[in-house]
Amino acid sequence: MADEDRLIQDTDSTRNRRPSNTEFDEFYESGGIIPENPSSSERELNSVRQQKVLWQYNYQEAAIFLEEGINNDKFKTHPRTFDALPAYALAHNKWYYLMDLLASLLLLGLIFCESPAVPFLKLPIGAHASLELFGLALLSVELGLKLRWQGVKTFFSHKRTLFKTLLLFLMFTEAIVVLSRQSNHFRVTRALRPLFLLDSHYARGVRRFVRQILQSLPPILDMIALLLFFMLIFSILGFYLFSTNPDDPFFKTIQSSFISLFVLLTTANYPDVMMPSYAQSKWSCLFFVVYLSIELYFLMSLLLAVVYDTFNTIEKTKLKKLYMHKRKACEYAFKLLVTKKHPDKIRLKAFVGFMKYYKPRKTPKEVYLIFKYLNKSSTGSLTSEEFHDIYNVCELQWKPRHQANQLWSSNFHYPFNKLFKYLNALVTSRWFDYAIYVIIAVNFVWILVETIQISVDTTVSAREYRPSWNNILFVCVYSLEAFLKILGLGVVKYFTNGWNIFDFLVTVSSVVGVFGEFYDDSFYYIMVLRPFRLLRLFKIKRRYRDVLGTMMILSNRMVSLAIVMLLSFYFFSVIGMEIFAPYTDKMVNCCKNTSVADYYTKTNSSDGFYYLNNFENVMSSAVTLFELTVVNNWFIIMEGYASVVSEWSRIYFMLFYLSMMVVMNIVVAFILEAFIFRIQYRKNVDDDMDDHAVVKLEVTLHPEEVVMVDSRGGHLSDYYMRNAVFEQHVQEGHGTVFRGERIRSKEDFSIKMYEDEVKEWIAEETEQRQQYELQMQEMRRQSQQNGLQIMQPDLIADDHYERSRTSTY
Question: Which parts of the sequence belong to the Ion transport domain (predicted)?
């Protein structure tokens, strides 16, 4: 290792040079073994060692390309030289990812401790300012590493990195000022702290969701502008129609007219806003009917249609870009793993070396199975087209097919193996499911009747409910069902099914609730979870299965949505605290002589409670913002702060409503797209998504291949794949079949459904490549006539890739 370290630290011209294809051919044919002949010269020994070290760099760089492909990272941020690889590897280490995530969460959590703080979490200024500097310092480490592997020009040309750098500098400055002055100041920039979390590795799904929202904004903003334009027209019309009515406070000025119609769009002030003018003239209702028909029922519906169309288009565009991006990553990696002797294929030895960096936890057997599955031509080496499929097979979990199909209890002694076999047949039979459905239906009727009896009996409250013998019986039946399924299917198979997990959690909650109710009524809330089990009845009808199946598919992406909502609340909470927190005490008994005065009254005889909707800390702010999201009576909160703070404070509440309206419309479009995709998949593929939930691939190994891959420290050879005799034996069934399985993702379903379009994408890329090559040939021919020489790049790549490959190797 000392010699290898010395070679790595050699001159720039040596360590930044890619080994020539001829050198690799010689190194490969020798088996990659450093000669130990004492008569060999030191120069030859160093040369072979140098080739080995440099090819380890090639393997690592090829793995980086594939990671950039699946992470959708731009190739222009790829490490420039071999020297930059250690910095890249450090920044993409799982422990560094964890540190970056914790630092981001630390900065987010400081909002609970900073002024205005949650009372029981308040920290001294010096403490929270020091913690902020510590978190910012941890986040700054990545910027230093990025500068090391990207270079100055690429670093400052990357918009997200540049923005993060400026934001860190600004927050560093503010934290130092707070620490030196020992006092807080107006800091709206704290609202931007969620951006650090979005930039972390573990928030990739959230980041993509936010990016999709931003990409959908242009047509949405156009529709919002149209919405506000019509609102302004009706505001002017309403002012001229109703401002002469002394009893109508909603249209006295053009400003109040616009605000009243904005609130009317949310229906929160209807019909109150109409009644003064309606009392004067019955015909005035036509104004409000026409306004609501155009704004609420037509333009808002049109907005949803525009959002859905934009979202659906972006989904397919995103799929195409990611798919082609991954293909390009495979091409870049492929060029790093071929030799001059074999420029169009990857040998097994190079693939094994590459997999040590790309999937280091894969065993030699798994690597060999992956390679053999990819090698559909049975030549013992991978072509470029075969290598493109590597993303689909690297996540497979392999096991012999007879083990994949056999029961978990197959190795039990007689008669237990027979008993568990019959038990498996029982719990997987259709009649067993039907029997459980009947029991659940009976339980539903019983719960309904029991609930009605409790509701009409004024002497018994719902909280005083105690489990009766029939409820205990149903819980016992459900517990027995779960127990039999676990024994029949096995623990692993049982808990890999979403419905089984759901049933198990509800059953455990019911059992705990039954025992708890005998001792204390604190388990009352657990017992009320029983009706959720009735959702299983909806599995019977296909339409309901589609709805619930869509919920299952969206579960992971709904987590991203929930995080986006929380971060949006965080953003507006910080701004709200900075603006409105000083006025918290003034909200009590405020708004005298206004229409909302009663809601803020606090006297011995009456209490309006709306003064509790304030921004005194982040928790109170979140509750207030949630009330604004529900929109019922949200204008009362807005009018209260407009009366106490300023008329301009309405802008904050209106912007929050518009932001939430955009997000919620995208959520609806998100759900529509997933549901319609499921229906279209069934029509196009003529099968249900539930039947294709698992990818299953099979590879057959000759008995001698099995011995080779099972031997510890053995050398993997492509001899068996290249030998026609062994392949003939395998095709005749003389071998062990291995099955690889993994859960199919939404991208897999999309590729399968748009299979014809995917072929068009590939054909289009191939045509562009051919045109590019023809152009290069023509330029070469013309340059030769002019006495010049033009080098043709190996790949159709971006400019950065061409420059880096030319300058580095």
Answer: 101-317, 429-675
